[in-house]
Amino acid sequence: MKILVTGAAGYVGGEIVKHLCDKKWVDSVVGMDINDHGFKHLKYTFEIRDIRESMDDIFKTDSIDTVVHAAYVLPPIHNKNLMEDINRGGTKNVLKASAKAGVKQILYTSSTTAYGFYPDNDQPLTEESPLRGNDDMTYAKNKKEIEAIMAQFMKEHPDIIVSILRPCFVVGPGFKNPLAEHLKKKLVLLPSNGKQFQYVHEDDVTNVTLLLLEKRIGGIFNVTGDGIMTFSEMTKMLGNIRIPLPWPVIYPLNNLAWFLRLGFITQFPSPAMRLMVTPWIASSEKLKRETGYTFKYDTRSAFADFVRSVKK
Q1: Chain centre distance of CA 42
Q2: Residue 282 in 3-state DSSP?
Q3: Is 178:268 a contact under the CB 8 Å cutoff?
Q4: Which residues, including other chains, have CB under 8 Å from residue 312's CB and lie 6 or more apart?
Q5: Which residue has the higher pLDDT, 134 or 78?
Q6: Residue 274: beta bridge partners?
Q7: In which order are the strands placed within the sheet that holds 219-223?
Q8: Position 72 confidence tier, pLDDT thresholds 50, 70, 90
Q9: Could you check whether the bond before residue 124 is cis, i.e. omega within 30 degrees of 0?
Q10: Cβ atoms 161, 108 nearer than 8 A
Q11: Residues of the chain by 3-state class (helix, strand, coil), percent to 5
Q12: Beta partners for residue 297, in sequence order
C-alpha cells in the first residue's frame, strides 16, 4: 500500500504514521501537515501543506492508493470560522482529491463526540445512535457535519472502501489535549455533577486503524475501552485536588476565563464541559464482533498509562 496520512504531526496521526512505516504490507507513507513533526524513516516522506490546498500532485507523484484522514483542529481556538473551514473544508478537499485519484480506501478518524452530549443519550451509544453533536461546541458540531459529508461521499463512490472510526477520548503517554492539561493542574475545577467517563488507549486506536487498512475493512466502528471511571478518580491518580463547583457557577466562570484567554484557568469554552456532565458512554461491541479485535487496555489501565508518563 502507498498511504497518505493527513494530520501527520498530530497526536493520533503521528502514532499511525510511525506504526505504518514498520509494516511489511506498506510500501510508502506520505505525511501531510502544516507543522513538521521531525519523524524520519526510509519509507516516509513529509509534506508541509494546508489541508485545504490542492494535493493532486501528491496523489499522482506518490501513486497514493490509501488515505488516512486524521487532520482536525482538536484544541478549541477562538476563531471558530477558521476552525470550521479547516475541519469541514479540509475534509471535502481530501475526499475530492481521493476520488479523482481513484484510491482504494479512505479511513477517517471521527469521534464519539459526534453523538453529542445530551441527558437522553442512548446508554450505551452504538453506531446506530443518532449523531447530534452539539452546535455550541465546534469540535462536536464539525464531527457530526463531517460524518454527513462522509455519508454522501459513500453513496456517490460505492467503489471506494470507507472506514470511519469513532474513538472516545484517546489517552496514553502522548495525551496532551486541553482535557489532559486541565486534569494535570494541582487544583482542578470540575462540575460537581460530573458523570462517569471512558477512555481508549492510543495504541488501541492505532492497532484498529492498522487492522482495518491491512484487511481492507470498511464500515463505521466505535473504538472505546471497556469500563468507566470518575473525574475524582482521575485527579486522585494524578495526585491533584478536585474542586467541585455547581454547574450554574462553573459554566459562566469557565466561559469568562475562556473569553479573557486565561489559559491557567481553562483551555476550552464551557460548552465542552457538557462531556463531563452527561451520559456519554459508547460500546465497541460491533468492532469486536465484526473484526475480532481484542483491546489491549480498558479505560482505567489506559488512563493509568497516561498517569505514569506524567509522573516520570
Answers
A1: 27
A2: strand
A3: yes
A4: none
A5: 134
A6: none
A7: 44-48, 28-33, 2-6, 66-69, 105-109, 161-167, 219-223
A8: confident
A9: yes
A10: no
A11: 40, 20, 40
A12: none
